Amino acid sequence: MSEATAPPRVLTVAGSDSGGGAGIQADLKTMLALGVHGMSVLTAVTAQNSLGVQGAWELPVEAVRAQYRSVVDDIGVQAVKTGMLASAELVGAVAELIAGTDVPAVVDPVGVSKHGDALLAASALDSVRTELLPAATVATPNLDEVEQLTGVRVRAEEEMRRAADAVLEFGPRWVVIKGGHLRGEAVDLLTDGTEEHWLRAPRHDNRHTHGTGCTLASAIASELAKGRTVPEAVAGAKAYVTGALAAGFALGGGIGPVDHGWTFRRAGG
Fold first, then answer.
1. What distance in Å separates the CA atoms of residue 96 and residue 199, rounded to the nearest whole number?
2. Are the C-beta atoms of residues 7 and 36 closer than 8 Å to each other?
3. Would you call 230 exposed, middle or buried from its count of C-beta atoms within 10 A (0-12, 13-18, 19+)?
4. Would 41 disulfide with which of 5, 13, 111, 255, CB 3.0-4.6 Å?
5. 12, 217 in Cβ contact below 8 A?
6. Are 210 and 21 in contact (CB under 8 A)?
7. 79-82 and 105-107: which strand pairing?
8. Are 80 and 104 in contact (CB under 8 A)?
9. Enzyme catalytic residues
10. Please, are residues 258 and 247 in contact by the beta-carbon 8 Å criterion?
11. pLDDT digits (tens, 9 = 90+) for 88-110
């Protein structure tokens, strides 16, 4: 009996969400749904549920570096995705690791949770700008994160291009400006400063959206690992996330998660 060929491998470097809707839990579920093998480097542990984040404890930099080297040096990766990196020290270490790994890197510059809880120390913002974003193949900030990083405030779709230019100045090859917080259609702008791709989807009347950003970044990384171009990967990821948002469900007393398994449930009838 011959060994099965391993699927493409994707590594998430992110924090844990004990409620299972965001963080590495969302990342690994997304990767499974999209047919790649997900692996993880844990950067922080959070006590988190549908109501918010009750506590967060970051891991030592040496623990993060050891996890990364353990996976990359033995198993190898086809793409890396970063999420919650709580401190300047962690941001710098992870930026150095991904810069030294010759695969696409998707950087989700996580600043605050869906509930408004800070997940990044203010002192780490400079490290994100000067170390992490230059190592990114694709950066995926939402509008709050754009404002945190660049000072550019986006109130309407026509301002998204200016926001993208401001983020690109920090050095990522591509940026996805996520316009999900605007009114009307859910519109995202993907650009490298030359090409522009506007991705539109109907807005679903569903408040259970926890984990959307983690899920999109992981989906992009998964598609890149399969050999897709950046525009193809982002379009495929947007389609997956739109389905997950439509199927988001209530958990606990607050904001529930998107449904990472919506494709399986649909296939199963």
1. 31
2. yes
3. buried
4. 13
5. no
6. yes
7. parallel
8. yes
9. 178, 209, 211-214
10. yes
11. 899 999 999 999 999 999 999 98
